[in-house]
């Protein structure tokens, strides 16, 4: 069946509160959700940086009780979800609040699902498998990257099996997202760069893919512009609140775009690579992105020409393909400026045989189905080899 591009839907059930100091509203907003006992999911770094304090003082002011699960690790493991779910149940929590990067927020989503649904987290892998409404979910990002605060997805890993998997359901959209740029001020330059490139990859992959539609396109354009203007500044000086604001808005709008469209080859590849080699999600995407863009140029040249323009390249007088190619140059220049590695071998010991083995896994991703240049197994292998 051919779907007319004029026929589309855009669903956004999350209430977003955005702005410097927004976190003080957490208590009264959670009260409105009818909750009086909240499980906070977070990691040691967030706790150590004192970022829980503004949240817990807002909860205290509203007379809301809480318990903290602070053992979240990068790419939350199934065991962490199980531990945090037990804590929520033992304490009779009726709301889950994830504060941190993608892993803390995704853990909150998974705990909210497992608090009201039987069986194991594996029963809900894939799209739309969640049966019962989860507990109310609140998401407070402290990085500008994942956008999990406004998406249906939670990425959960099984570190024993070296697997990463996604659980996606409209029921897992947070009820409330509090986006406060001040909470991102303490993010170190490397993490700022890596998570920022994840957000840029979201925006670009959503913008060029075949599921794109006018609302997500507008959001992706906004995101690309914000990230191109602010990522260098945020890496250079983490305390630049305007740069942090630009990046948080860039990451939020990217997620609002891709939540409706899915992504593309960079995300198809970054999951198996991240699970097998423990490379950070943002860095894997950053290394792959220019090579994926080069492969994709012929599938959406007008879109890539627009990306070049949005990223500040001069495209006047160029042919459409020349202008499109400028977008790849713009991303490569950005990667050099923010000092991220541009090849996998700079960070991990990876051989061509590893790639051939993992490519089968990458090919299974639904993100390939909306990529503007449909890849086969050999294309995926070639893109990854180019990124070595
Ligand atoms: Fe991502």
Verbal overview:
The protein has 388 residues and is of the alpha/beta class. It folds into two domains: 15-183, Rossmann fold (3-Layer(aba) Sandwich); 189-386, Dehydroquinate synthase-like, alpha domain. 49% of the residues lie in helices and 11% in strands. It has 14 helices and nine strands. The protein has helices spanning 26-32, 44-48, 53-61, 78-90, 102-114, 189-208, 214-236, 241-261, 265-277, 281-296, 301-310, 320-337, 352-363, 377-386, and strands at residues 15-18, 37-41, 65-69, 95-100, 126-127, 137-141, 153-158, 163-168, 176-179. A six-stranded parallel β-sheet has the order 1-9-6-4-2-3, with helices on both faces. A three-stranded mixed β-sheet has the order 5-8-7. A hairpin with a 4-residue loop joins strand 7 (153-158) and strand 8 (163-168). The mean pLDDT is 95. Bound molecules: fe (ii) ion. Fe (ii) ion (FE2) is lined by residues 198, 202, 267, 281, 285. Residues 198, 202, 267, 281, 285 line the site of fe (ii) ion.
């Amino acid at each position: 069946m051919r779907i007319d591009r004029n026929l589309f839907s855009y669903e956004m059930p999350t209430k977003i509160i955005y702005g410097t100091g927004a976190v003080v509203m957490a208590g009264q907003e959670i009260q409105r959700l009818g909750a009086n006992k909240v499980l906070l999911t977070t990691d040691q770094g967030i706790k150590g940086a004192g970022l829980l304090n503004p949240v817990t003082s807002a909860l205290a002011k509203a007379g809301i009780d809480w318990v903290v699960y602070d053992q979240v690790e990068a790419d939350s493991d199934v065991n962490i979800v199980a531990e945090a779910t037990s804590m929520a149940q033992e304490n009779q929590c009726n709301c889950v609040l994830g504060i941190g990067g993608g892993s803390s927020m995704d853990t909150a989503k998974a705990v909210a699902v497992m608090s009201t649904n039987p069986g194991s987290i594996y029963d809900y892998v894939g799209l739309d498998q969640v049966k019962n409404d989860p507990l109310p979910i609140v998401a407070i990002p402290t990085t500008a990257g994942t956008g999990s605060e406004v998406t249906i997805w939670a990425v959960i890993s099984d570190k024993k099996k070296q697997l990463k998997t996604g659980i996606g359901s409209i029921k897992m959209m947070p009820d409330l997202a509090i986006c406060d740029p001040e909470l991102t001020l303490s993010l170190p330059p490397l993490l700022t760069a890596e998570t920022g490139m994840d957000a840029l990859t979201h925006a670009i992959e959503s913008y060029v893919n075949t599921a794109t539609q006018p609302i997500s396109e507008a959001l992706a354009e906004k995101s690309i512009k914000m990230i191109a203007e602010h990522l260098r500044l945020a890496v250079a000086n983490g305390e630049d609140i305007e740069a942090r604001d630009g990046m948080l808005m860039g990451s939020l709008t990217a997620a609002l775009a891709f939540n409706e469209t899915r992504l593309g080859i960079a995300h198809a590849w970054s999951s198996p690579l991240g699970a097998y080699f423990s490379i950070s999600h943002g860095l894997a995407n950053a290394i792959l992105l220019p090579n994926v863009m080069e492969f994709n140029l012929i599938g959406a040249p007008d879109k890539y020409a627009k990306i070049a323009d949005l990223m500040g390249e001069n495209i006047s007088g160029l042919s459409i393909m020349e202008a499109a190619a400028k977008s790849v140059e713009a991303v490569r220049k950005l990667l050099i400026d923010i000092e991220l590695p541009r090849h996998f071998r700079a960070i991990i010991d990876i051989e061509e045989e590893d790639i051939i083995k993992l490519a089968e896994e990458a090919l299974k991703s639904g993100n390939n189905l909306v990529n503007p240049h449909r890849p086969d197994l050999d294309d995926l292998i070639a893109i990854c080899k180019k990124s070595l």
